[in-house]
Each structure stands twice: as structure tokens, then as C-alpha cells.
Design goal:
By secondary structure, this protein is an all-alpha fold. Helices cover 75% and strands 0% of the residues. Helix 1 packs antiparallel against helix 2 (48-64), helix 1 packs antiparallel against helix 6 (136-164) and helix 5 (87-122) runs antiparallel to helix 6 (136-164).
């Protein structure tokens, strides 16, 4: 279990780093949006590339931070119901939900998204909008984001099993005697 907990720690560190890096894309998206609006209203001109860049950035934030959100335990939950259960029961609900719902969904989307990305990359797909951007970079976000979510799902499973085995005080806490 020690090796698995180290793997879990590496996955957590990866999603933590990605999450903190992607935070900055929110600022970039705001600046692009404000700049585009300013140019559109002051110079009466615009570019589809800037509009598409805005939604590419939003997509990156949403997709690449899914694993980070799971790491932080900030995803949508059924807290009203689950909060009435003991901690062990809550952990079992998380384990069952992760194995039977999160993982199959995330793996399926990741697998189905990969050929879409590859086809787009192979043909150098461009937006159908005049002056639009390449499509493959945004299509790569789908399998990449769901890969990060799958990895974090594995990490959360490891931590919850460790909790049930008495190796952790809380599913998201460090191991006993370690910091």
C-alpha cells in the first residue's frame, strides 16, 4: 500500500500543479475578452480567432481542472444525504461511486475523444469561421482533461482504501507519521 500511496501523492501533485497553472488561464480569458470587446466597440472590428480563443481558454479551464476539483473535493455531491452517514459509510459511497460511475464515464469519454482529436490533428482541421483557429488543440483538451480526472479518481480510490485500512485519519489527509 505504501507504493500506491506514493503514486497517489504523485497524481495529487500533478493535478495540483495543473490546477494552479490553469488558474492563470482565467485571467488570460478575461484579458482576451476585454481586449476583444474594447477593439470591437472602439475600432468597429473584430476577429473570429479572438472569440474562439476565449472559448478555447474556457474549455481548458473547465476540462483541465476537473481532476483538480476532485482532488480538492469541490465537485457536486449529495451532501444533504451523505452527511448523515458515518465517515466509513461516506468513504464506501465514494468508492462505489468512483468505481461504478466516475471511472467508467471518464474512461469512456477519454477513449471516445481520442479519435476525434487524432482526426482533427491529421487533417489540420481549421474552424469553419473566417479567420478561425486550428481545432485540434481544443480537441486535445477532451482526452487530456479526462485523463487527469481518471488519474485523480485512481488517487482518490487509493486514499479511501488506505483510510478503511487505518493508514489515514481522513481520506484526504497525509499518512500517519508523515507530513
Amino acid at each position: 500500500m505504501g507504493i500506491l500511496l506514493k503514486v497517489s501523492g504523485l497524481i495529487d501533485a500533478l493535478n495540483e500543479a495543473v490546477g494552479k497553472l490553469v488558474y492563470w488561464l482565467v485571467l488570460v480569458a478575461v484579458l482576451v475578452s476585454a481586449g476583444n470587446a474594447t477593439i470591437r466597440y472602439t475600432l468597429d472590428t473584430s476577429s473570429n480567432a479572438w472569440l474562439e480563443l476565449q472559448w478555447y481558454l474556457f474549455s481548458a479551464v473547465f476540462l483541465l481542472c476537473a481532476g483538480y476539483t476532485l482532488l480538492r473535493n469541490e465537485h457536486i455531491r449529495i451532501d444533504i444525504v451523505i452527511s448523515r452517514f458515518s465517515k466509513r459509510t461516506q468513504v464506501w459511497v465514494d468508492i462505489i461511486g468512483t468505481i461504478f460511475f466516475l471511472m467508467p464515464m471518464a474512461i469512456l469519454i477519454m477513449v471516445l475523444a481520442w479519435p476525434l482529436f487524432m482526426d482533427s490533428y491529421r487533417i489540420h482541421e481549421l474552424s469553419s469561421n473566417a479567420g478561425g483557429l486550428l481545432r485540434w488543440p481544443v480537441k486535445l483538451l477532451l482526452p487530456a482533461g479526462f485523463l487527469l480526472l481518471v488519474l485523480q479518481g485512481v488517487s482518490e480510490l487509493i486514499k479511501r482504501v488506505a483510510f478503511l485500512m487505518g493508514l489515514r485519519d481522513e481520506p484526504g489527509e497525509k499518512m500517519h507519521g508523515h507530513s
